[in-house]
Amino acid sequence: MTTYMEEASTKAEAARLASRKLAYTRTDIKNEALENISRYLIECQDEILKANEIDYTNALQSGMNPAMLDRLMLDEGRIQNMSQDVTRIRALSDPVGEMFDTQTMPNGMIIGKKRVPLGVIAAIYESRPNVTIDISSLCLKSGNALLLRGGKEAFYTNKALTGVVIRACGEAGLPDNSVQFIENTERNLVNYLLKMNYLIDLVVPRGGAGLIQMIRENSTIPVVAGGVGVCHTYVDSEANIDEAVDIVFNAKTQRPTVCNALDTVIVHKDIAGEYLHLLAKQLFNAGVEMRCDEKAYRIIKDKGFDCLQATHDDWGMEFLSLIIAVKTVDNMDEAIKHIETFGSGHSEAILSQNYSSVMRFLNEVDAAAVFANASTRFTDGAQFGLGAEVGISTQKFHARGPLGLREITSYKWVIFGNGHIRH
Questions:
Q1: For a Cys staple, 175 with which of 18, 44, 219, 398, CB 3.0–4.6 Å?
Q2: Cβ pair 148, 136 in contact under 8 A
Q3: Are residues 167 and 253 in the same domain?
Q4: In this structure, what is the dihedral angle of CA atoms 79, 171, 89, 154, given to the nearest 10 degrees?
């Protein structure tokens, strides 16, 4: 019986070998693999859904929370969306080999940068089987080999999806072991994997705050982490009130279980009475629980809607459900201070028709994505034109926000001389 250490070592070594060939594989071959993946997702849909049904049933019986169940569940529509995302990635320019920042030096040497893959990426993730396809497609297109280590709650789904990817790669002629699925679900395997810095170049965790913190604390490999989204929207005194109601409603309810869903709405006192009346009506009818500061609580109660008084723990909480915190402020300074104190650096928005207020917010708020007059739900690789994302980074090194093709490449300096020697 293969131990978790043997499986991790064998597959990481094989991925390293594959990465050396994949780094200079032609674009047309990579694109053929992606075309195969897109097609096989649809052709193998029944098999994938049967595997997902096993995982979903097991997770439901184990008492998994609704947010995780929603992320785990696949249906025909979600598989169709996955297939379309792969097609979009295929259509993007291949970043590998791109020359940029090229200049001719005074001595005649030509110096520039050439974009190259990172090498081997390990994805460690929970519950969301679409990650299997998103990361595989982005890594293949950018010339990176990939190790997939999903959670046991999505084991059968991830295995079926990886089977689609491996078949697609083999038929296109990509190097063997370019994408590999680690089957062992022992928790100790992750810690072992995180120490393999001699074989793995980057770790991308996708999951809850506990998983991300554990990986950050234990990895000897660089980690690009994020995904924990405590998202705010500030409704300024000069907001278009009807538009602001629609945007906040969308950001909270369109898909509440994901990281870019709205958690706290911050409302300027000058429009709080009118705005919160309209907003509370929509949220109440949609079954959203409102947790309010004292002023918002009085306004919403006076209008005849149920709400709760917020506790300190509600500020800075990623709810991942139909719950929203409501904060009133006297001015933008107070709004920005609240975001600075309780935000996670993911996505923040201002709703205002005042240009100066908008630009101040965009300049001063420190987050991976800052929006003006739009829903935070747009923080997404596909929505940003990246096809999909490896993850959403809330840190500043080496990339920030949705990680697409260029964000999982590096560069090397390329120098052209003509007999040059240094004096």
A1: 18
A2: yes
A3: no
A4: 40
* Cβ neighbours, 10 Å, residue 2: 10
CATH number at residue 287: 3.40.309.10
In a domain, 384, yes or no: no
DSSP lists the bridge partners of residue 120 as 145
In a domain, 398, yes or no: no
pLDDT in tens, 191-226: 999 999 999 999 999 888 888 899 999 999 999 987
CATH of the domain at 107: 3.40.605.10
| C-alpha span between 285 and 314 (Å, rounded) | 22
C-alpha distances in Å from residue 84, one per residue of 40, 80, 213: 12, 6, 32
Q: How far apart are CA 363 and CA 147, in angstroms?
A: 38
Q: Are residues 220 and 251 in the same domain?
A: no
| Distance between start and end Cα atoms, the chain | 62
Regarding pTM above 0.85, the answer is: yes
Q: 122 - beta bridge partners?
A: 147, 203
Rounded Cα gap, residues 138 and 404, in angstroms:
7
Q: Do 18 and 127 share a domain, yes or no? A: yes
Reduce the DSSP state of residue 53 to 3 states and report it: helix
Instruction: Estimate the share of the chain in helix, then strand, then coil, as percent rounded to the nearest 5.
Output: 45, 20, 35
In a domain, 272, yes or no: yes
Handedness of CA 263, 269, 270, 275 (dihedral sign): positive
Whole-Å CA distances, 368 to 226, 236, 260, 381: 10, 21, 11, 13
Q: Give the separation between CA 402 and CA 388, rounded to whole angstroms.
A: 8
Beta pairing, strands 401-402 & 409-416: unpaired
**Side chain identity, residue 61:** Q
pLDDT digits over 145-183, tens only? 999 999 999 999 999 999 999 999 999 999 999 999 999
The domain containing residue 235 runs over which residues? 231-378
Residue 387 located in a structural domain: no
Nearest one of 85, 38, 26 to 386, comparing CA atoms: 85
* CA-wise closest residue to 234 among 275, 187, 206, 183: 275
Q: Where are the alpha helices (DSSP H) in 254-354?
A: 272-285, 294-302, 332-342
Give the containing element (helix H, strand E) for 287.
none
Q: Provide the token pair at 141.
A: 């297109």
**Domains held by the chain: number:** 2
Beta bridge partners of 204: 123
Residues 173, 289 within the same domain: no
Q: Are residues 117 and 235 in the same domain?
A: no
286 and 353 in a common domain: yes
Nearest CA among 189, 197, 124, 134 for reference residue 161: 134
